[in-house]
Amino acid sequence: MGTLAGIEFFTATVEAGSFASAARRLGVTASAVSRRVAQLERELGVPLLSRTTRSLSLTHDGRAFHERCVRILGELREAHDAMARASQKPSGLLRVEIPVALGHAVITPKMPLFLAKYPAVRLELTLRDSFVDPVAEGIDILVRIGPPGESALIARRLGASQIVPCAAPAYLARRGTPKAPSDLAEHDCLGYLRDGRPDPWRFVAADGTTMAVDIKGPYHANDAAAGYQAALAGRGLVALFDFVVKDAFARGELVRVLENYPMPTRPIHALYPKNRHLLPKVRVFLDFLVELFRDHKTAKASASGPIARTDAHTADLRRAPRS
């Protein structure tokens, strides 16, 4: 396919429009450019340029070859930049946004470790559940629960979390343990409040279909922590992400119910604009998140056992229960 220099001389000639203009851009003579392009044509066995005394134009083969050369050189430049930036020290302002409950339960407790390892990075962390445009907001990394959807953002999967129905032992001793989703009609359920009413609880059947069950109870809130605290106090059943209730399960303060009726599992992704992924500060924080969720997955499995996987039936990111 000829040398890389020949390809560079050829693309420069096409972009500049003449051997002389390409030579000025490359800092060589016009005859050197002409000879190198002619050598490339001999190696390929086809003419790439139609030459007249007044102009140059691409042949049919030259046009197809030029398109590939542009892509090849672009990838080489990107690889060069990646290696150059990888050698740089992570520094500067890093803006990260994560869901509230996921942040409190999994990410923020480990932040001191990241800050100690990368003291030149200044971190601005926002905990919020609403979906925002990271490009418009100037956010470097956005962590979200749910499918990434169709967007120009790059998505890096961190893990997954299942919604788990549970209650305090005192509540179950007083009201009994539900055996099937239909039994929820006889129980106080602590729901996630959305648009003035609690979200239905969704269960995944053996065939993969989802069944929605309306719930009722004395207390609903638009924050996972509120339902969690009420459940600990024995005020009713609650359905929360496993990372919220993991420690309460380990202490025996909450117990899982309806284990034969799994609720959906939702993937967790780090989303970031394409132009951010080469920055050292972004790269090291993404690696930090991947390692953090790997450790969290191991701890979760040892504390509460395996979790059923139902990723194919997750809801849209904007409609997923906020965490």
TrEMBL record:
KW Kinase (keyword) present: no
Region described as Disordered: 303-323
Coiled-coil stretches: none
Family membership: Belongs to the LysR transcriptional regulatory family.
Domain of life: Bacteria
Biased composition (Basic and acidic residues): 310-323
Keyword Signal attributed: no
Keywords: DNA-binding, Transcription, Transcription regulation
Name used for this protein in its record: LysR family transcriptional regulator
Record-linked Gene3D superfamilies: 3.40.190.290, Winged helix-like DNA-binding domain superfamily/Winged helix DNA-binding domain
Record-annotated HTH lysR-type domain positions: 1-59
